[in-house]
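Q: I'm building a small set of examples for a reading group on sequence design. Run inverse folding on the following structure and report the sequence directly after it, with nothing in between.
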């Protein structure tokens, strides 16, 4: 296994040149929530068919 790397929201904010870390976290939350809406049913179907 590889080494675990911890990245702070502040580091991501600076790397992406967002004005503040709240913007970075809001975007991350939006993306992950939208991804979950798509993958949750797919995962449930996969588990049901095992």
């Amino acid at each position: 296994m590889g080494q675990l790397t911890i990245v702070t929201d502040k580091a991501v904010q600076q790397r992406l040149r967002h004005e503040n870390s709240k913007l970075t976290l809001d975007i991350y939350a939006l993306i992950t929530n939208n991804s979950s809406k798509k993958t949750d049913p797919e995962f449930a179907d996969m588990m049901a068919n095992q």
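The chain has two helices and no strands.
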